[in-house]
Fold this protein.
Amino acid sequence: MAHGSPIDWPHVQCSVCRLVMRVPALRRGTVRQPNFCCARCGATVHRRKPDSLARTTAFLLAAVFCYFPANLYPIMQATSLGRAQEDTIVTGVVYLFESGMWPLAAIVFVASVVVPVAKIVSLAGLVLSVRWKSRWRPRDRAATYRIVELIGRWSMVDVYVVTILVALVHMGTLANVEVRFGAAFFAAVVVLTILAAESFDPRLIWDALEERDGREARAR
Amino acid sequence: MRIVGCHECDAVMEEPFVPDGGAAYCIRCGALLFRRHSRTVEVCFALVVAAAILYTVANVYPFLAFQMQGQQTHTTLLEGVDALMDQGENAVAALVFLTAIASPACEIGLLLYVLGPVFFGFRLPGMAVAFRFVEQFRPWSMLEVFLIGILVAGVKLADLADIVPGTALYAFGLLIPILAAASNFLDAEIVWRRIAEEA
């Protein structure tokens, strides 16, 4: 009888070890149960991730604010034989394309340019769809969330590239690479979007459908 | 009959029979419910021991050397973090340290701490807590991304100077498929049952 709002359901699942337990006399009307721990692994059990939508929205807004300086400011400066050149995320990708390394250029383009934007847009869409209690294609929205979780980490490529270049190239006037503060903003975008994805609870996508089914069941 | 829940949509269903090596997916949302590997403890323990050795090699030796007009520099992972801190980018340095050094180390170490006792049949305190944290570290462990980072950095430096791959690069190349295989073969439900029944 999985009908009605989530608080009425007889079972709850531990989000860490995934044990399904019968709910011991929960107080009605509380989604978050303090002091309710998993019988097997001891983790705190929540019906839904606490304040999921608010936290996701907050992390997304922060990521959007960091996104502009991350792309407008250079992330590093390379000096070679007295000639200094500043690189942003985009010029770094262009350089890879120009040197003919198409597969790597494509990976970096997707990881650094496409993925952050795609993550922010799709998570914002998911949050809005849940807020509006949308029942539109829940399976596809669930798949979207799964993909967002999977690809987010690949944006770290550029942060690692800067780290390696800075560590390797320090030969004074001959050749030198320095970090610029765009890198910190870019790293912040990556971390904030990962945190946003982690705070979003995909189970919320399905709650709108459960509520409708519950209403129809009661009407019959 | 046991019931299982989908961790992505909260659907509750009877545990389906899954043959060894197979996987079960949620009937409602299509998420992976679990993979069944009856020899998960043996296989994963072996893989994690190999990963621990390779991780050590990957961190001790330099992964790239850079030669330019008779000068040579080389770098290890930790020296990379150090270089960022020298330039005042402490936050970025901390992030690289967390994702490329600390999280993989915690993941490997905690898995050893849990799978070793389960494999040999004895108990250590806090195994449940340790296994809980394995899951928490996984999203922050990004070694495979770091390997691509090495390749990109190598390409960028290639026309400036000579790039020599180091011992650690080969260790990384082996470590990443082994870690991926370990997480693929890990049937967490079996490990949780073994931890719980011996408690």
The two ends of chain A are 15 Å apart (CA to CA). Residues 102-131 of chain A form the longest helix (30 residues). The longest strand of chain A covers residues 76-80.
